[in-house]
Design a protein that fits this description.
Layout (H helix, E strand, L loop, with lengths): L9 E2 L2 E2 L15 H4 L28 H8 L8 H9 L1
Antiparallel strand pairs: 1-2
This protein binds zinc ion.
Length: 88
């Protein structure tokens, strides 16, 4: 959001409707496919930022980090017990 902070975007001297998305799956839709009205400047376009249609986000933590964040004590147990616990 900081990239557009302070900008005013107009279309035919009117403020635009600044639609935005977190993930579109690779292309946006024409406004009339999503809302009621066809808006000339809201046309479907390919979106390189969301090129992966099924984005997968993954992160890793050590057990000590999990314990610290969740206030648990998983690192005190053998790993097989922790895995069993997580799968339940
Ligand atoms: Zn997108």
């Amino acid at each position: 959001m900081d990239n557009t902070k302070g900008q005013v975007i107009t279309y035919k001297s009117q403020l635009i409707f600044p639609a935005f998305h977190s993930s579109c799956g690779g292309s946006t839709e024409n406004s009339e496919e999503v809302w009621v009205a066809a808006t000339p400047y809201l046309k479907g376009v390919p979106c390189p930022y969301c090129a992966d249609p099924e984005p997968e986000r993954q992160t890793s933590y050590t057990l000590a980090e999990v314990d610290n964040k969740l206030k648990t004590n998983l690192s005190a147990y053998p790993l097989w017990q922790v895995i069993t616990l997580i799968r339940q």
